[in-house]
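Support request, please re-run this one:
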Amino acid sequence: MTQILMSEASHHRIRDRIAHLAPKLEIVTVPELNRFVRNGVDLAAGDIAPEIVWNTQEAYQGGLLPTLMRALLDSPNVRWLQTFNAGLDLPIFRRIMEKGVRITKSSAQGVVIAEYVLAHALSLIVPIDAQKALQARQEWGRTQYREVSQTRWLLVGYGAIGEQIAQRARAFGVDLTVVRRGSDAGLAHRTLPLSRIAEALPDSDVVVLACALTDETRDMCNDAFFAALKPGAILINIGRGGLVDEDALRRGLDAGRPAHAVLDVFQTEPLPEDHWIWGHPQVRVSAHTSNSGDGVQPRADIQFIENLERYLAGEPLMNEAEPSEVGLA
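Re-run finished. Output below.
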């Protein structure tokens, strides 16, 4: 029998949909911090030995992640972790994979993050603020602007989230360049390796950062990056805060390269109260919440159930991480 550890709320959501697997499963739930329950009976931490651990966004928000992760690290039986994370740059994921644990990432947030990116980009390309200002002055004025279909986009990263962004951007007819490792991105007009990103910066109207944080990408948006960027460009970061040198960004904004920055992630989170980014007129701030759509958890549940069926059948898992994603060779 396979023991699975998950939050109580997660089990409540999916228990009917995994009833057909019940004879093969032993479910241990975490209803609150440092508490484990099986079939309505409390267990000591030493009495559990999960083979599968499921980390969910709701468990993270409820403060249950320390309990789940501690049990994972302490158990010699864990073989698979399904996590709500799309990126695995946190050091704990390396520790987990070094234990021989397979990690599958979530692709559930791709839809809502792509919508976030498109919403901000469109609202900055179409002169909504200028039209609002004319309205406030009761002034009948013309607001000329570049059509979205005439813009050139640079998408850095083409994982599950990047592909969702590409689908929506291409629907507006944009010219799309993708920076990624490996073969061509199917939705891109052209694909470049990271080493050649400078070639695309002078022509890019919108730059979207959707890549992982690695030694190669850390602080890649530096003074040289912004100096090469097209004047008036829009920078959107939904990847990781460490991708952007924030001091260099400030200098770039002062020079109009970029003209606007939309930031959902930051070098330090939460963003300190006295940080210059809060009050900068050319910056939009959201609190690492671009993934907060109401469809994320239902999609994540579906992904876990399908992967659970695959795991029990000995089939390949969807969205399984490679060792290189956590810094292992």
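The chain has two domains: 2-108+295-326, 110-285. The chain has a mean pLDDT of 96.
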